Each structure stands twice: as C-alpha cells, then as structure tokens.
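Page 42, continued from yesterday. The earlier attempt failed because a stray header line got pasted into the input along with the sequence. Redoing it now with the clean sequence only.
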Amino acid sequence: MEELVFRHVVMFWWKAGTTQAQIAAVTAGLASLPERIAQIQRYEHGPDVGVAGANADYVLVADFGNSDAWRAYSSHPAHVAVVEESVKPIVERIERIQYTIG
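This time it went through. Structure tokens are written below.
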C-alpha cells in the first residue's frame, strides 16, 4: 500500500516597506527548520520569481508523514520562534492549505 503524504502549503504577502534583510531572515529561519524538526520529510520555500501578475511574495511547501507530524512541526518551539520573530512582523496576508497525496 502506498503511503500518503501530508502536504502543507503557505503563501505569504509582505507588508509594504518590507526589506530584503527581513526576507533574508525569514529564509534563514525557515532553512534551519528541517535539521531541527524530525517530522519534516521535504521542505521547500522561496520568493516569487515575478513572471506573472499578482502572485504571493513567498511560498513554503512542506511534506509530512501524517497530520500528527504536521501538528508536531506546527507547535515545535523552533517553528514558533521563526513565525513570531521573523514572519509575523512583516506579513500582510497569509494563506494556508493542507492536503494529502497518494
């Protein structure tokens, strides 16, 4: 039987005036999470490349073994710290979705 993948996708829109240094802090914080949170199976994130209209500014795509693993990630102190210290100060809008693959 094929295993399901629990996928978490987040799209971010930054506030006007957000600096490249602030975005770099988000990128660095997110990049540190896979080695700190064992439940992460696959983790990708980055800024929009700007080839289409009114896209989000930044996206995160993360895969987990199940919804319990995602919940553990979501409440993990390292994840919470990145959100509180780097994301929340600059985010204007955020959209999230979780779905299963397989």
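Notes: DSSP finds three helices and four strands in the chain.
Reminder to self: strip header lines before submitting.
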